[in-house]
């Protein structure tokens, strides 16, 4: 009698197990859009549930995605992954993951966008050391390359420079300039141009040397030299002579 009851109980449990409905696949976590930089590794991941056995396939706009040295397809414990070891512009597109079992199918999709790889700043053309005359304009100029946006700053003898008081700085069309309206002896020293973006910093240096007024006279025409000598012999008041002399 006990054996009969046990048999009925086992049969009842089997019947209850048999009537559990089978489920088609469905996604607990869907694919999400990704935006990465060229050269990065990326993993497109989703989680699927449903009645086993479930198989998973991946597709891109141009067809089915298959495993390769740079592309790995994984599916374990309901988690499906498409791993790209080093993305390029050719990997841009819409990806779909399709899950299926004997009952039905389900799919999820996302877009993958690949941005250009960012490069740190460089100087294709660096600033060069200058030797100018006191009172004359001074201009440092260099060319800057690298991923935008790039910020450019200038330093003199290690101290940051600010625009104003006869000093101007600009950065347009990849050209950085530092302009001094009238060179003075206090402007002599080492100048540094610093370029910075999100992935790095670069700098280049050059020296400025200024020559005095006597050097300027030696570079002028013979007319100016003779005129300067004439003033030195002309009986003018010292202050007045200096005033006229400085107008050359």
Automatic annotation (TrEMBL):
InterPro entries: Ig-like_dom, Ig-like_dom_sf, Ig-like_fold, Ig_I-set, Ig_sub, Ig_sub2. It holds the Pfam family I-set. Keywords: Immunoglobulin domain. GO terms for biological process: cardiac muscle cell development; heart morphogenesis. It comes from the Eukaryota. SMART domains: IG, IGc2. Residues 25-113, 121-209 form the Ig-like domain. This is Ig-like domain-containing protein. It comes from Periophthalmus magnuspinnatus. The lineage of its organism: Eukaryota, Metazoa, Chordata, Craniata, Vertebrata.
